[in-house]
Write a structure and sequence with these properties.
Blueprint (H helix, E strand, L loop, with lengths): L3 H31 L1
């Protein structure tokens, strides 16, 4: 059995990475629109 803290940490990190990817994608899209 995995400790709950490890599972929660992994899920949290995955969410943060996806969130950052989304923000970076939006940022680059915004830069492209400005050109």
């Amino acid at each position: 059995d995995f400790p709950v803290t490890i599972v929660t940490g992994v899920i949290f990190m995955a969410c943060v990475l996806l969130f950052r990817k989304g923000i970076i994608g939006e940022f680059y899209g915004w830069l492209e629109r400005r050109k």
